[in-house]
TrEMBL record:
Protein name: C4-dicarboxylate transporter DctA
InterPro entries membership: Na:dicarbo_symporter_sf
GO MF term list: symporter activity
One Gene Ontology cellular component annotation held by this UniProt entry: membrane
Lineage, top ranks: Bacteria, Pseudomonadati, Pseudomonadota, Gammaproteobacteria, Lysobacterales
Superkingdom in the source lineage: Bacteria
Entry keywords, A to Z: Membrane, Signal, Transmembrane, Transmembrane helix
Signal peptide residues on this chain, from the entry's feature table: 1-19
């Protein structure tokens, strides 16, 4: 238990340091006033219409490649094939 707590805390500290140094999305310069509010409303409406059965049926992909072939995010991202490896031959 102590080992788990130590390494979990260490991972959190490393993540905080990396996020502070790298600063992801720092250069995006997104203006909230310019965002399309209708797209957000579509997602909120779809979320409110989701049932427990629909959620459970969405977890299981329809085919083996459907999570990677469609633009819709899926809970089963583990079924997607890994990206191609790039070998550096020198």
């Amino acid at each position: 238990m102590v080992c788990f707590l130590f390494f979990s805390t260490l991972a959190l500290i490393v993540d905080m340091v990396v996020a502070h140094v790298v600063q992801p999305a720092a250069g995006m310069n997104v203006k909230v006033a310019d965002l399309d509010r209708s797209k957000v409303d579509e997602h909120v409406t779809a979320t409110h219409q989701m049932t427990v059965t629909g959620l459970l049926m969405d977890i299981i992909p329809k085919t083996l490649v459907s999570p990677s072939a469609t633009s819709r995010p899926s809970c089963c991202w583990c079924w997607a094939p890994p990206p191609p490896r790039r070998h550096c031959l020198r």
